[in-house]
Recover the amino acids of this structure.
């Protein structure tokens, strides 16, 4: 596993005007109830019966004290609570998380690496996930029943994951199955032994959608293994419905040779997703109309500018970026692939990266003998990751010391069991 065990103690600041709204970094609680910043999929969270304090721990309920404490005091309190909790606690930090939080994390990684990192700490009763909602759900699905997964701020959703909700996907599935003349609750193989359609969900999706895939013969993918997963799917089905990220689906299928004409977009607000029945018959990959608001900001013009200003620059972008951007880059890959790309470069190299600014800044600090910069100099960080402010972390940790579990993420076992099926299929899928 390439998860990084964190020993970072330096504090990095965001460069220039990299934050869309500086208040988001300083006081995210002011945004928790605002339209467009709401709790998204966390609205559906069940309140754990054994943790009644959770009923009060909804977004925006951060006690006033933690909004007002100076940042240094918050860090002191976090360190003290960590020490008090000892082996009972593991803190996970996503690559895109702000450095004020990462400095307290025991592990740094992408969402799936972090869920697996938690498995290496079975003695930890509390898994505090400094990422976004779907990541905490995955950690809960994979952790033991004795462990509690905590998301310090329930408003830390993922705008991409929220673009595909369970009801819309169920409705799309029924429409699609009707076109193919199959029972949506029991899709069976045609005479050639292949299913007419199979669902594939990106890891960045709710537990309910992972369970949907588990129930319908489908599978989960990450940005590291999307091609392997699509190969697995095409061995079993003639088509896939890929959600929620159209760009990862398109970039991956295109690299495998699927023509663009066979990748219609499914817009859940339009009949047949905005397609004709003939489009759907000819389709190989039906792409859900979702995207990442961070990665869709990268453009070919930014790459051209980087190339003209830095001859010889190497450009790598995340596959959640639009297809023309991936095509114009020298390489594309997951957060882990980007880290490896930088690690494999040489002193003096110039590298332009198309991914979240916190990760780029951290790589630039780790490799000071290279010139590393973000393609978009005014890129917004992932605004939902920013909801995890040290105030929230101090609050949940100090309450844990007192035996109070706030903001626990609980995936009901009926959902988790099916989601595990789809995750297990992913783990069993091997590259050709
Ligand atoms: S970077 Fe994009 S996909 Fe990742 S958590 Fe943020 S909004 Fe979601």
């Amino acid at each position: 596993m390439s998860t990084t065990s964190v020993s970072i103690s330096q504090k990095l600041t965001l460069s220039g005007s990299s934050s869309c709204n500086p208040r988001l970094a300083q006081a995210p609680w002011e945004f928790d109830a605002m339209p467009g910043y709401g709790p998204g999929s966390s609205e559906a969270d069940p309140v754990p019966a054994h943790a009644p304090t959770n009923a009060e721990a909804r977004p925006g309920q951060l006690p006033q004290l933690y909004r007002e404490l100076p940042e240094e005091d918050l860090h002191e309190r976090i360190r003290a609570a960590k020490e008090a909790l000892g082996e009972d606690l593991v803190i996970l930090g996503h690559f895109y998380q702000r450095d004020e939080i990462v400095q307290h994390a025991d592990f740094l990684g992408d969402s799936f690496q972090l869920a697996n990192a938690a498995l290496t700490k079975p003695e930890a009763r509390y898994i505090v996930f400094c990422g976004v909602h779907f990541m905490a759900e995955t950690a809960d699905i994979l952790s033991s029943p004795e462990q509690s997964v905590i998301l310090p701020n329930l408003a830390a959703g993922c705008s991409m994951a929220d673009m595909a909700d369970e009801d819309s996907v169920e409705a799309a599935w029924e429409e699609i199955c009707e076109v193919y003349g199959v029972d949506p609750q029991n899709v069976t193989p045609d005479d050639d032994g292949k299913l007419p359609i199979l669902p594939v969900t990106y890891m960045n999706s709710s537990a309910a959608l992972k369970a949907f895939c588990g129930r319908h013969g489908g599978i989960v993918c990450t940005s590291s293994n999307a091609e392997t997963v699509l190969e697995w799917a095409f061995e079993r089905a003639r088509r896939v419905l890929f959600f929620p990220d159209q760009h990862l689906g398109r970039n991956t299928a295109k690299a495998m040779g699927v023509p663009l004409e066979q990748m219609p977009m499914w817009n859940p607000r339009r009949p047949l997703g905005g397609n004709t029945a003939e489009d759907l018959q000819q389709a190989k990959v039906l792409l859900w109309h979702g995207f990442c608001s961070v990665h869709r900001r990268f453009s070919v013009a930014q790459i051209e500018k980087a190339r003209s200003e830095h001859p010889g620059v190497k450009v790598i972008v995340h596959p959640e970026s639009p297809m023309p951007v991936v095509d114009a880059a020298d390489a594309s890959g997951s957060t882990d692939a980007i880290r490896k790309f930088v690690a494999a470069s040489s002193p003096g190299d110039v590298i332009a990266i198309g991914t979240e600014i916190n990760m780029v800044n951290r790589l630039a600090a780790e490799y000071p003998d290279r010139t590393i910069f973000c393609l978009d100099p005014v890129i917004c960080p992932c605004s939902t990751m920013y909801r995890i402010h040290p105030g929230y972390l101090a609050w949940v940790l100090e309450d844990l010391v007192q035996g109070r579990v706030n903001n626990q993420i609980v995936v009901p076992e009926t959902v988790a069991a099916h989601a595990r099926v789809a995750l297990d299929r992913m783990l069993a899928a091997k590259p050709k």
About this structure: Residues 96, 132, 158-160, 204, 292-294, 356, 382, 384-385 surround iron/sulfur cluster (CB under 6 Å). Confidence is low (pLDDT under 50) at residues 5-19, 52-59.
